[in-house]
Write a structure and sequence with these properties.
The chain is mainly α and about 375 residues long. Helix content is about 65%, strand content about 0%.
Length: about 375
């Protein structure tokens, strides 16, 4: 059985590793947002080489010039710079950039497996979630599908870090808020998420609140909320280099009239539910296998899922509603913190996170049925 679990996780990783090799072997600069991320990486490396502050260096190539890291997540670019300096230039900065992208895409199933096992899910549920995590196929929706990251896609480099860290923080926060163990580690991971991607940290903050509230009894609710507050406070302190300049320069930030309106408003519940049922969110261009697994997972939770499974369903439902955006929420959307500048279309990330967990739950339910039928026939 252990060999089977290894195969379930390893085979998709091996296939992806080969399929994604052009991302590191073909040394052609991207024509998507990775072009900007490469610019940030290169300029940060030049700032360090010149003895300047890499967190507050000038980027003259954008508009009339901008101190980009003063208000933009910078852990991912600085990680690439750090790796290049550790290898003393043996691997070029550009190659490190592509290698980090490739590694994070290939290794995502391992992060999912570890996180679900840390939360207490069964090995088979964790393995199935891990195997499907890198198979999501959407139609340019900016979620966890590879189109968000590859050369021909959107180039969401910082989201690659946030995708991994979101699962890590979910697992660590689940344990820390419910038991009080590992609060410091969860807070450090949450701080790293803030430094990697503000929107994903925003989503995880709300999800941590759901962890504290879901299934809490009157005598445990207060202590859970205190633990969640401590986790958030430490994360805020750790990531002050990111959010404090952002807050202080908020007067210079605005909502661009040139972005498509759906990015600020999202699409509305009827459209999104239609996409969900038709397979457009998880299964574009193929039979809706993952969508079916998601449905089975939801049914399994209603049929008697454990607390952690019910939490996954709660997180999925809440974020599906929030992802529906202003057409559905109406004035309620203004109650969300920083609502005036929220990019609602990016909230699909937390929908994907919870859906991956539910797919594993659905796959595990089918697995148990097959094992029971086999034992009866035997």
């Amino acid at each position: 059985e252990r060999l089977l679990l290894v195969a379930i996780v390893a085979i998709p990783m091996l296939v992806n590793a080969v399929a994604l090799l052009p991302e590191i072997l073909v040394r052609i600069p991207s024509v998507n947002d990775d072009m900007l991320h490469w610019l940030f990486i290169r300029n940060a490396a030049e700032a360090i080489a010149a003895g300047a502050n890499p967190l507050d260096h000038w980027v003259p190539q954008i508009e009339l010039g901008v101190p980009q890291f003063l208000f933009y997540q910078h852990l991912a670019p600085l990680t690439v710079v750090g790796l290049e300096r550790l290898t003393i230039g043996a691997i070029s900065l550009f190659d490190w950039f592509n290698l980090v992208r490739w590694t994070l895409m290939v290794a995502f199933p391992l992060t999912v497996f570890w996180s679900m096992r840390r939360m207490g899910f069964s090995p088979i549920a964790a393995a199935i979630s891990a195997s499907v995590a890198s198979l999501l196929s959407a139609d340019g929706l900016y979620g966890f599908e590879f189109d968000s990251y590859v050369w021909r896609g959107w180039g969401l480099f910082t989201q690659l870090f946030a995708m991994h860290l979101s699962f890590v923080v979910l697992a660590l926060a689940y344990r820390a808020v419910r038991t009080g163990r590992g609060l410091a580690l969860a807070a450090l991971a949450f701080g790293a998420l803030v430094l990697s991607h503000l929107i994903y940290a925003y989503m995880m903050g709300i999800t941590i609140g759901l962890i504290a509230l879901a299934g809490a009894r009157r005598r445990t609710l207060a202590i859970r909320l205190v633990r969640a507050g401590i986790l958030g406070a430490v994360a805020v302190a750790v990531s002050a280099s990111m959010w404090l300049p952002f807050v202080l320069t908020k007067a210079y930030l605005n909502i661009s009239p040139y972005l498509q309106s759906y990015k600020y408003d999202s699409f509305g519940a009827p459209t999104i539910l239609g996409w969900l049922v038709s397979g457009r969110i998880f299964d574009v261009g193929r039979a809706p296998v993952l969508t079916a697994l998601l449905g089975l997972g939801i049914l399994a939770v209603f049929a008697g899922g454990r607390r952690r499974a019910r939490l996954a369903l709660i997180v999925f439902g809440v974020w599906l509603v929030i992802y529906s955006g202003r057409p559905t929420l109406g004035p309620l959307a203004n109650l969300l913190p920083l609502s005036e500048g929220l990019l609602f279309h990016r909230f699909i990330g937390e929908v994907d996170l919870a859906a991956i967990v539910l797919m594993g739950i659905g796959g595990a339910a089918v697995w148990r049925l097959l094992v029971q039928r086999g034992s009866h026939q035997g």
